[in-house]
Design a protein that fits this description.
Layout: H1 4-9, E1 15-17, H2 26-34, E2 39-42, H3 48-61, E3 66-71, H4 77-86, E4 91-95, H5 103-108, E5 112-117, H6 120-129, E6 133-137, E7 143-144, H7 152-162, E8 167-170, H8 176-184, E9 189-192, H9 194-197, H10 206-212, E10 220-223, E11 230-233, H11 236-246, H12 251-258, H13 262-268, H14 292-313
Parallel strand pairs: 1-9, 2-3, 3-4, 4-5, 5-6, 6-8, 8-9
Antiparallel strand pairs: 7-11, 10-11
């Protein structure tokens, strides 16, 4: 499958694993890359030297392209970027911040830069900042989300109309049919978080994975809206946040309830009651925990079948 996204990153398939906190270590990234997609290491939950270790192990585990996802609000951002540059990483996905701050420096060091947005307004700013590609992530996605609450089906065509650079769709995509729909709307690649979080190589706790594959429609909700909108599984922590928000609690009180290390407690340590359990809506369609490479191949196989089915129907109105 050859298009602008595959060519930009030097990969066989325009399928990218999201750089998720507590899920996206070197094992997941290298497995996705070895299968022909683009694996990302999630720097957001790593201390600088831990990131260096994961980059080095990923380089040893694959000779295919891989990248690092970096939230720009990371407190040790300069150290993180220096490690990425010194370790020779060739692809960086940035998020949660202004792409102008780091794009030029990264590109001057031979690094391809993509930035994650939740609106066409910010997608245009990314193009003006000189990024190589944009990831447009819809409201369905797990974890931190845009305040606009725009769904992927609405967001992708709006972003496509706004920019000319390669566009990657994210949010609610976990199947070949979803990939085809994203392409029909103007995307040239897909980034999938939840589908890859629920694989054998994901570093999430087994208890978290097993809960996620049991979820039904409506079992996740967008929460923490007063501080940073985040899609969560409904549990005791979620209920505490919602009760506070429903009675009009100030952002400071919500932050106090959130505390520190809440997502680590839930996703990485498997505390299903008190943890911050971030996962996307597509989890309700997932009922297995395959190897990451199997996911890449099944996505592409289903995509091709759906293309053939639509072509054979020859539907015209």
């Amino acid at each position: 499958m050859s298009n602008r996204v595959a060519s930009l990153f030097g990969i066989k398939y325009p399928v990218i694993s999201g750089g998720m906190v507590w899920c996206s270590g070197w094992r997941l990234a290298s497995a996705v890359s070895n299968a022909g997609g683009l694996g990302l290491i999630g720097a957001g939950s790593m201390h600088p030297e831990t990131l260096r270790e994961h980059i080095q192990k990923c380089k040893a585990a694959t000779d295919k392209p891989f990248g690092v996802n970096v939230p720009l609000m990371y407190p040790e951002i300069e150290t993180i970027m220096d490690i990425i540059i010194s370790e020779g990483v060739k692809i960086v996905f940035t998020s949660a911040g202004n792409p102008k701050l780091w794009t030029k420096k990264l590109q001057d060091n031979g690094i391809i830069v993509a930035h994650v947005v939740s609106s066409s307004k910010f997608a245009l700013k990314c193009e003006e900042a000189g990024v190589n590609a944009v990831v447009a992530e819809g409201f369905e996605a797990g974890g931190h989300n845009g305040r606009e609450e725009t769904s992927t089906m609405v967001l992708i065509p709006q972003v496509r109309k706004s920019i000319s650079i390669p566009l990657i769709a994210a949010g609610g995509i976990g199947t070949g049919a979803g990939m085809l729909a994203a392409f029909a709307l103007g995307a040239e690649g897909v980034q999938m978080g939840t589908r890859f979080a629920l694989t054998q190589e994901s570093s999430a706790a087994q208890e978290f994975k097993e809960l996620c594959v049991s979820l039904k429609e409506g079992d996740t909700m967008l929460s923490l809206k007063k501080i940073s909108p985040t899609r969560l599984i409904k549990n005791d922590f979620y209920n505490a946040v919602q009760a506070a928000e429903d009675r009009g609690a100030a952002p400071e009180e919500i932050r106090e309830i959130l505390g520190r290390g809440r997502s680590k407690k839930g996703i990485f340590e498997g505390n299903l009651s008190e943890g911050e359990l971030e996962i996307g809506q597509i989890s309700s369609l997932i009922d297995d925990l395959p190897a990451a490479g199997e996911v890449v191949h099944s996505i592409i196989a289903e995509y091709n079948i759906k293309v053939e089915n639509i072509t054979s129907q020859n539907i015209k109105f």
